[in-house]
């Protein structure tokens, strides 16, 4: 089976672990231990177009690294990245943009998705303008609003990413 390493990046508390639990177990739990260093999970994505499944090896990293993650061995061999922010905390969106730029610099041309998480929260309503701006600056197809809590947007993001990885290989 085609296997691809995918980095999960983003500040602490934006929902990286919750997104992976939603993707893999279709569950949401209120509380997770914060990831120390790195946790590696594997998930097979079955594309809707009937093509072969792809194994994503998902590296859930400790958000404390910031953009210095790109200077560590954790990112070696990454095919793609899922870069996450919490839409109710603007500073995490700024950090997400920095991480996108860092990823593009370190891995030119490799696919990524920028996920604006927690759109289920009422505070997310005020951020529609900022989301539109971001979508414009990063390229619309790379940005998606999601919720690990309700599940909206999660599975699709990983399927689309897997399809993009396959097209580029
Ligand atoms: P990580 O540090 O990026 O891995 O973030 P976690 O997955 O540990 O999530 C941090 C907190 O945000 C936890 O209390 C989660 O329950 C909560 N959380 C994560 N995703 C969502 C979401 O989509 N909606 C809401 N309302 N809370 C979320």
UniProtKB/TrEMBL annotation:
This is Ras-related protein Rab-22. GO terms for molecular function: GTP binding; GTPase activity. Keywords: GTP-binding, Nucleotide-binding. The keyword Cell membrane does not apply. It comes from Bradyrhizobium macuxiense. It comes from the Bacteria. Gene3D superfamilies: P-loop containing nucleotide triphosphate hydrolases. PANTHER family: RAS-RELATED PROTEIN RAB. InterPro entries: P-loop_NTPase, Rab, Small_GTP-bd, Small_GTPase.
């Amino acid at each position: 089976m085609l296997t691809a390493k995918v980095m999960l990046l983003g500040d602490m508390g934006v929902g990286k672990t919750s997104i992976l639990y939603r993707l893999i177990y279709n569950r949401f739990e209120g509380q997770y231990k914060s990831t120390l260093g790195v946790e590696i999970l594997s998930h097979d994505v079955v594309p809707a177009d009937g093509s072969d499944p792809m194994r994503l090896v998902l590296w859930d990293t400790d958000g404390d690294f910031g953009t210095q993650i790109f200077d560590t061995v954790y990112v070696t061999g990454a095919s793609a990245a899922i870069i996450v922010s919490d839409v109710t905390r603007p500073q995490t969106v700024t950090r997400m943009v920095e991480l996108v730029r860092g990823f593009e610099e370190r891995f030119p041309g490799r696919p990524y998705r920028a996920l604006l998480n927690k759109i289920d929260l009422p505070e997310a309503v005020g951020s529609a303008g900022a989301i539109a701006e971001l979508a414009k600056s990063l390229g619309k197809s790379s940005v998606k609003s999601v919720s690990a809590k309700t599940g909206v947007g999660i599975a699709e993001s990983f399927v689309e990413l897997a399809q993009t990885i396959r097209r580029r290989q």
